[in-house]
Structures are given as C-alpha cells and as structure tokens.
Design a protein that fits this description.
Layout: E1 7-12, E2 15-21, E3 26-31, H1 34-37, H2 39-51, E4 55-60, H3 61-66, H4 68-80
Pfam family, one: DUF559
InterPro entries: DUF559 (IPR007569), Endonuclease_DUF559_bact (IPR047216), Restrct_endonuc-II-like (IPR011335)
Domain DUF559: 1-79
Length: 82
C-alpha cells in the first residue's frame, strides 16, 4: 500500500500483531468477537506496543468484510501520518 510493506503475524515483544508496517511504525489489529472477551489483555498489549513508540489501529472484522474500501482508506490515512 502506497509503497509500504506490511508483515502479517509479526511478533513484537512476545505479542503477535495481525499486521505491522515498520516504516510507518503502525500495528493493525483486526478484531473479531474474541476481543470482546479479552479487553483487559488487549489494553495491556496496546500499552506495551505504544510504549515502544508504535501506533495502533484497531479494525473490526465486520468492517473488513462490509466496508473494505473504507478500511483501506483508514489505513492509508494512518500511514500518511509518518
């Protein structure tokens, strides 16, 4: 996307990021229903990743399925902020 490389299932500090772009220092998490049950874990994980200077973008599974163009626009916008 826009010349940037994204890695899938990137391990960062023992956490597995769904997608990671090193150049943009951006972690993208695609959240399914399981994330409703693990909110405390996600909060701690987000803190740890943010402490490394990484930005996080959480996207719901249903948004990916139903509004892919909008999701891609959000990701592109987040990448412009580098």
């Amino acid at each position: 996307m826009n010349g940037l490389h994204f890695r899938r299932q990137q391990i960062i500090d023992g956490f597995i990021a769904d997608f990671y772009c090193h150049a943009a220092r951006l972690v993208i998490e695609v959240d399914g229903q399981i994330h409703q049950q693990q909110a405390e874990y996600d909060t701690e994980r987000d803190r740890a990743l943010s402490a490394r200077g990484l930005r996080l973008l959480r996207i719901k599974n249903e948004d990916v399925r139903q509004n892919l163009d909008s999701v891609l626009a959000r990701i592109a916008k987040a990448c412009e902020m580098i």
